[in-house]
Each structure stands twice: as C-alpha cells, then as structure tokens.
Write a structure and sequence with these properties.
- The structure is a homodimer of 529-residue chains.
- With 529 residues, the first copy, chain A, is of the alpha/beta class.
- Chain A has 2 domains: 3-260 and 444-527, Aminopeptidase (3-Layer(aba) Sandwich); 262-316 and 359-441, Alpha-Beta Plaits (2-Layer Sandwich), CATH 3.30.70.
- Chain A has 18 helices and 21 strands.
- Chain A has a 6-stranded mixed beta sheet with strand order 1-2-7-3-8-20, covered by helices on one side.
- The longest helix of chain A is centred in the N-terminal third of the chain and has 17 residues, at 79-95.
- The first copy, chain A, is globular and about 80 Å long.
- Chains A and B meet through β11, β12, α9, α10 and α12 of A and β11, β12, α9, α10 and α12 of B.
- β13 (363-370) of chain A pairs antiparallel with β13 of chain B, so a sheet runs across the interface.
C-alpha cells in the first residue's frame, strides 16, 4: 500500500506508482478500479523525503519506543492503569514542547489536552485520538495483550515471530507489531510523537497550530466526553478536526472518511427455571431458555441479513448524489475480503459493501447459556443471554432504534422486564426477557468538499503515494456528533491502521508500513502550505 | 418425606403416616394422590429402630465424616484426584471388613470392587454407585465445590449457613450439606459405609452377601465400564443389582425406578469469518455465526418442545399396560414443580410429566459465541458453538438418533464437517457446521414385578415410612444396558437424594433427611428376611 514500504528501491515515483497499482490489481483482485480520474498523487516534497530518511535510520529506536508504550495496560475499565498511561503520555508530549495537561472529572478516566503553537501558523488543526483500549481476555491472545511482539507478517497469513531490529537495521513494512491498542489507538498517538521528533530533527517548519485531545474512555462509549467539552469549550477552537482512529480502506489505499456510524447496545436475558436443571430428570419438560432466545434472535433477521424489526429502516437518511459518486470510486474489494476472511457468502450480496454500511446493523456480539466443550454439563440452563450492538446511520435516533427492537421482542410473546424477574412474574408469564438497552450516540456524515479537507486528502495521497479513498462513512462508531453537532466544527477522519488489525479482538496488531504511513501523513499535514 | 426426620416425636406409625400425608397434601399441592391402594407401609422393626437410634446419637460424628469425604475433589477428568479418592474409599471399606480392591485399566479411572459375605445369607445383592463427580466451575459456586458447608435449608429457599453440630446435638433433617457429589453420588456410598457401622454397632444380622461396584467414570459416560465387566465377569454374579444414583421422586416419597433413559451428545460449531471481525466495519456484511446457529437450533424444536427432526419419535417403544398402570399411581406434582422452579409453563403441558420422560429429548446444554456482559466486545464472533444432549428411551439407537439430527442439519443447508474447515471448504460452502457426535448408550426398562424387587419396594416403604413410588423410568441416564443386556441380570434403581439437589450444577447439595433415609434403607435391605 504505502509507497516506500512497498517500493523501497524505486526512486522514480512514476515507476513506483505503476508497481503499486500492478501489485494491488494482482493481489487484491480489485474488480472495479477506476484509477484514471483519481490518480492525482502530488510529487514527494523534500520535507517528506527528510522525514522518511529519519524514520528509516531510526527504525530500531522507533520500534523500541513503540514497544515500550504498548506495554502500558489500558483496558478502558482499568482506571488505575489508564491513569498511569495518561501521565506517561503527558510527559512524552511535554518533552516535545507540547503544553499538555490532564483534564479530570470525578469517576472518569482523564482526558489529555495538549497545545503546540507554531510561529506564522496558517491554521489551527485539532487532533482527536484515544489512549484507552478494548477489554481483553488474555487467554485468547497468542502472546500477552501487553507483551508486544514482532512478527514477519500477520499470524493469520503464516507470519512467525522475529527479533526486534538492531540499530541501523531496516524493518520490513509487512511485519506486524502485536499488542492491545497497537492500532486502536495508541498507534496514532505514537505516530504523532514520532512526527514531532522527525520534524524537529529535520528542521522542518510547521505551518499550523496544533491542539490535541486524547480520549481515555472511547472504548467505553465516551460517557463523559460531552461534559469534558462543556467544561473546556474555550480550548476547542480551531479550523478542522482530524479524527485519528479506525483502519484505512481494505484496498490498503490512504483513506479519508466523512462520517461514522452511531451505536446503541442491548443485552437480552431469557429465563428458564430458577436454577439449572438436570437435563435427564427434566429434559422434555422444563423450557430451555437457550432455545427460546435462539428463536427470538432468529426472528430478528432473515437469511440474507435483512433486519425484520418493524420500522428498522424507516428513518435512514438517503444517500446524496455526491456520496453516491464517491461510492462509485471506492475500489470493490468484496471478493478479496471474502477470500481473506474465508467466507463463501456475505449478507445481502446484491448491494455494494459501502451501501451495506449506510444501513443500520443488528449484530449478535455474544450469546451465552450453560457451557460448551469440556466444561459442558448435562443441564437445562436457567438463563440465556445475548449481547447485541446496533450500528446506526444518519437519521437513526439511538433510543428510538432500541425501542423498535424492544417492541419486536414483545411481539414475539415475551414479557419485558428490566431486572431479574421475581417469583410472581415468573409464574405469570411463560416467556420473559430482561432487556437492558443502552443508547449511545447517533451517526454523523459531513460534507465531502470542505476546502481544508481537500488539502488533507492531497496530503494523504502524497504520504501514501496513492490516490486517496474517500468514504462517506466508516462502519465503526465514534462520538463525533459532539464535534459536528455540539461544537459545530468540521472534521475529517484520518485513519492510519491496516484494515486487518484485529481491532477489538485478541491479537490486535499494527502493520509496520502503516506506522510509517502515519508518520509520513502527519509530517505532511503539519507542514503543508 | 422421611418418617423420623419429619415426625421425630411420633411414636405410633399410624399417626405419623397421617401427619406425613397431610403435610404432603398441603405443602406440595399434590393433585391426584391415590393413597388408599398404595398405602402399604410395613411396621417399623427393631433393627430399623436401633439403626435410627444410632444415627441420631451419632449425628455429629456422621456429618464430620461425610464432610471429610466431600473434601476429596472428584471431577471425573481429574484422574489424579479421582485416584486419591478411590484409594481412600478402599481403605474405608476395608476397615469395615469388606474385601475391597481397585480394578484398573490403562488410561481409565479405577473401579472399586468390594465383597462382604454373611453367614447363612439368603441372597447376594450387588450394589452400584459412582464416586466420580461432574466437572465444576468453581466461580459459580457460592462456596467452593469441595469445601462442604451446612445450611439450615436449601439456599434457594432462603437457607442460611449454620455451624456443624456438636456431639450429641440433633440435626434438622431439612438442613442441607452443600458440596460437589454430596448427592451424586458420594452420598449413597457414604450411607452404605454408615449402614455397615450401624449394623455392627447394633449387632444386627445381615441376611445377604454384598458386592459393591463403585464406578469412577460415570460422569464421563462410563467409557470403560464394559471392559471392566468383561475383564471381571466372574465377580459380578448375584441375585439383583441395586443401582444407587439419582434423586427420589419430586413428591419426596421413597422411590424405585425400573429404567433409565439412554444418552447421546453432539457439539455443533458454526463458522463466520476466520477471525472475530469489528462489528462496525463489517456489521451488515459479514455473516454472524451466532445468528446462523440460533436459526439452526430453532428449526429443531417447535414452541411446544416437540422435536422437529424427521423420524425422531419413530423408534420409541410403546408404553406397556403395566407401565401405564404405574404411571397412573405416581403423584402428579407438575404444578408444585412449576412453582418450585418458577415456571409459568412447561413443554407440551397436555402430557403427564412421566410420559414426557418416556420420549426422547433434544436439549441445548450450552451455547457460546463471543462474550456477554462486561466482557462483551463489539465484534462479529468467528464461531458459535452449541452442546446438545439427547436423552433416549427404550427403542432408540444412540447412533441412529444422532444421524437423524445430522440429516436435519444438512437439510437446513449446512455442509457438515468433522474438524475445523480449511480455506477451500470455507470458500465453497456458505453454511458450515462442524458436528462432533458422541453416541453413548441406550435406555433400559425392566419388568416391574420381579420378586426381589417387590421386597426392595417394601423395604423402601418401611425406611421412608410412606408408600413407594414406582417409576417405569428415571429421566436421567445410567449405563444400565451393560447389566441388563450384557450381564443379563435384573436390577432396580434405588435413589436416596432429594430431587432438588442441584445435581450436575453449582451448589449441589444433599438434604440431611435424605442421608438418614439412605442409611435406614440400606439397613432394612441388608437385614430383610
């Protein structure tokens, strides 16, 4: 994907571009790649060349520092460790001349705020990233989540663990660093740190003031971000927000996104007997909650993945013609993704991938009842629980969408409760569902032709040495409504991570080439005219 | 239920009987209790009275010894600990004059064999019990599974922990001892040990030779029992087997059973992508295996609990007229059970409970995909797994029943595999199910009028001081086909545990009154004319 990582020996950008494109066409089976109109990559400038030289020479030191950062545990609920990491980051940014401080609220992880002025700055850019991480189940990780290791390529593709580079040694951009938050989202913060080092070392001139906001609760749905912004509204004043989170497009091309999906979640518990029952003594007599929950969930989606909850698609905002045009230029990588993920078929295959992301989803993220495998016992479980997440699109109200699902559950004959049913309730209703609904935040989609955004897109093309992919939305969720709706400021999303980074899952990783891209990208943006 | 525990102060059995019956009618809401014809309880004899006196005086010591036995971990897979327990039991039986030894096979838990001759014995009784226990998930236990505690009554009914009795102190028969295997099945073995002590102490005369077979792998489906019996067939020669496992009837009355269900099990894994995917980036695109498994399981049973797998009921042996008659005399306790378990409704309520047990069941004992609750993450899980158990009735072939379910899975459009699918298989089939089928053993049902069985029934009535409930089958499964089909010997099942013992689940317990019943029962049987 990324110019220099893929073509280290090519010196002419034209040859390199051709090589990259050929590689993409072969290895990704891109089906509909309209390169001509889009192939608008600016020439590499001397600042970028200097920065690239810096990071190539310093690879050993850079990975050593990244490894050290990844060792800080940061599960979003683990406040003590999150705080330690926050203090460490404050120190790191202060050492680079950024006025940095922790903003605090009671019973909340801190928010890191930093400011770096530049003489003669043409603009003020505000940068969002988050330093907390998803919870982990260490037993599911090949190595510990906070014991970073280097692999020759991704584990999934047969990569093997390799030693950390020695001073002066180059690092294959295809290699991966494994560890929680390597891509989501310590990677972006670390790329900024190293960009500041690189610009200082190469005496490059920054053309913008910078403001940093590093969220410590993104993986918990940023429950306090709104209050942080309310309390410190005067700090957050600038020309454009850059949101540094999420992965680049699956084609590997540099990517800008103009929206994100919103999110709500729901946990449903269905009840059998008050305790687990012996499946012999009561099998065929006592109702099985796993079966009843299975039937309930089955009723929510058809075989093609269409949600059957009444009204679920009614509030979806139509796709604009401008967005439709952008969608038409996104490389179609469905077949390649199916191969990569080992899928013969996907939900509703008649629609483009991006169009599926512009619809609200209803996903079972977990289902648990009794036990399976070696710890399975011959019981009729007393409860069955499913966790759902609803990814929302522009137009969907987070609370209303949950209400639609609740109405559906009632239509299936379930009596809804908000806590475990008492004996009276149990004896009154044959089907009981405890529903805990958590509305989070709505989706956003912003205009695709903002002048500064156009410049950022050029910077991304330059740093990635490929035409940028412009996405009307990311599939993932971020609390961006606070910025677009509450602060009324424009934003673009500038992801750097590889798409197959195992975000939110065990064995999260960052492709080294994507770390390089992050440094090159921030260096270009911070110095662009 | 049990004479003396319930009526400690009554000296005339008539009054006691009436009192017991009244209590039952009130507290259990028994709907159809045809007491007249059945109320055939013999007079308490002096041997039984002596034994009861012994156990009342010795309550403190007896519970101390039971507590010590329950501390031995015995999860059936934990061979090292199972072996320690086996050696301990051999010592205990040897100390009571029983010629006891371990029978061994490679890669198997040992079988304990014991023999106790009696001068002038009228018969030889063979006693089966098992000393291994179900696997445990310690975190789900209120106290440790092998840290026995005493409760004033069941936890579910508001019991509280109470101190162990002091010497001379009586123990409320309603109190419960909690610990893995307290009822399933260390309780029966322990009752035998204490019976031998009581008979010795009271100088009672045994009228039978005894042979003991204590299985160490019952909870794993007794995979080696057949080989043990083949290797030592000459040892197992006698007049009747007594199978000491399972709970008494839910009415609390003494119980004999003439059959058990067979069992087979199946584990089904359904596949999504090769790894967990971010539910934002791929939600609405990547198929969700939890949903697909939910749809598959939903297709297997209707809302009334009838199995929809083609041919599932075809091989069921019809209920005989003799069995039908016995069924008619079983107390109907459905309403009471529903109240006890907090169930407004059960599967197919138009049929009697016992008739449901005479049909094969299809039960989801576990369903697992992704995570729920605090550890839920926003992913599309890569797999979903369900564990099923099939309880079989007379006529069902264990292997054939699994084949019917497999055929059903294929009819739902799944490609069946026996191990995790490779990439080629993944890309070829949109729905893949890994099915691991484990046929165990068939059901048995034996004649209800065997002369020795009739005597055992009288002993049970005497010890329990209530008419015995005769069940054509228990709902649970035991490998009894080996005795009825391979050794061609008659058997009756003689359970002692309370029905709400949490068998196979956390917080397993034995009601103290049921331990007393066990001692009284074995004392009566071992000394009957």
């Amino acid at each position: 994907m990324l110019a220099h990582p893929i073509c280290p020996s090519f010196k002419t950008s034209v040859a390199c571009r051709f090589h990259v494109l050929a590689l993409l066409l072969i290895s990704l089976s891109i089906e509909n790649f309209s390169a001509a109109g889009d192939f608008d990559v600016p020439e590499v400038n001397s600042t970028l060349q200097d920065v690239q030289g810096f990071r190539e020479k310093q690879s050993c030191q850079i990975l050593k520092e990244f490894r050290s950062l990844l060792k800080y545990p940061n599960s979003t609920q683990d406040r003590a460790n999150v705080l330690k990491l926050a203090k460490h980051l404050v120190k790191e940014f202060q050492q680079r001349g950024v006025e940095t401080k922790l903003l605090r609220l009671p019973n909340a992880n801190p928010l890191i705020y930093g400011e770096l002025k530049s003489p003669g700055a043409k603009r003020t850019l505000m940068i969002y990233a988050h330093y907390d991480g998803q919870p982990v189940v260490p037993s599911r990780w090949k190595h510990g989540p906070w014991e970073p290791v280097l692999y020759s390529k991704s584990m999934q593709e047969g990569g093997r663990q390799i030693p950390w580079p020695k001073p002066g040694q180059k690092v294959d951009p295809e290699s991966r660093i494994y560890g929680r938050s390597s891509s989501d989202d310590k990677g972006a913060i670390f790329a900024i740190l190293k960009t500041l080092d690189a610009l200082k070392k190469t005496n490059a001139k920054r053309t913008c003031n910078l403001k940093f906001l590093f969220d410590g609760e993104e993986e918990a749905g940023s429950p306090n971000l709104r209050r942080y912004l309310e309390n410190h509204k005067q700090l957050f004043d600038g020309d454009l927000w850059l949101f540094c989170d999420g992965p680049v497009h699956q084609s590997g091309r540099p990517t800008l996104a103009f929206g994100v999906r919103g999110i709500s979640s729901m946990e449903i518990t269905v009840y059998g007997a008050r305790r687990n029952l012996h499946s012999g003594h009561y099998g065929n007599w006592a109702p099985n909650p796993a079966l009843n929950l299975a039937k309930l969930l089955s009723s929510m989606k058809d075989e093609k993945g269409n949600v059957l909850v009444e009204g679920y698609y009614d509030s979806v905002l139509p796709i604009s013609s401008e967005e439709n045009q952008a969608i038409g230029q996104i490389p179609i990588i469905d077949r390649e993704l199916r191969r990569k993920f080992g899928l013969a078929q996907t939900e509703n295959e008649n629609e483009l991938f991006m169009k599926r992301l512009l619809l609200p989803s209803l996903n079972i993220k977990g289902f648990s009842s009794g036990s399976v495998g070696d710890s399975a016992r011959n019981i009729i479980p007393n409860t069955a629980t499913a966790s759902l997440d609803l990814r929302l699109v522009k137009g969907n109200d987070p609370r209303r969408m949950l209400q639609l699902v609740e109405a559906h559950i009632e239509k299936q004959g379930f009596h809804l409760v908000r806590k475990d049913p008492d004996q009276r309730t149990r004896l009154k209703y044959s089907k009981i569902a405890k529903v805990i609904s958590k509305p989070s935040y709505p989706a956003i989609r912003t205009e695709m032709d903002h002048p500064l955004a156009v410049k950022i897109a050029q910077a991304a093309s330059l740093a990635g040495n490929q035409p940028v992919v412009k996405l009307p939305t990311l599939g993932g969720s971020l609390p961006l409504y606070l910025f677009t709706d509450y602060l009324s400021q424009p934003l673009v999303i500038v992801p750097i991570a590889n798409f197959d980074n195992n975000q939110h899952a065990p064995n999260e990783n960052l492709r080294i080439g994507n770390l390089w891209y992050g440094i090159d990208l921030f260096a270009t943006i911070f110095t662009m005219e």
